[in-house]
Specification:
single chain, 78 residues, 82% helix
Length: 78
């Protein structure tokens, strides 16, 4: 008999699945946060009746998204 028992879980595969699941959760949390900022920014712009408020919130959300996306990309290359 060669190799390991196929009924036993492969530790490398389990670790890869756990990492993928964690990465998916981080991505989902980031997208949820960006969606929440857009949603509440829209509500705030309607409450204050100032288009500049809405543009400021949307600009801040885009800037935050870019900073996080670039930071994650740089961190993953190290």
């Amino acid at each position: 008999m060669t190799g390991s028992d196929p009924r036993l879980p492969d530790p490398a595969a389990a670790d890869a699945k756990a990492r993928l699941r964690a990465a998916n959760r981080r991505t989902a949390a980031l997208l949820f946060a960006i969606g929440a900022v857009f949603f509440f920014g829209f509500i705030a712009s309607r409450v204050f009746a100032d288009p500049a408020t809405g543009m400021t919130v949307i600009g801040a959300a885009v800037l935050l998204f870019l900073v996080v996306a670039i930071g994650r990309n740089l961190r993953s290359r190290q």
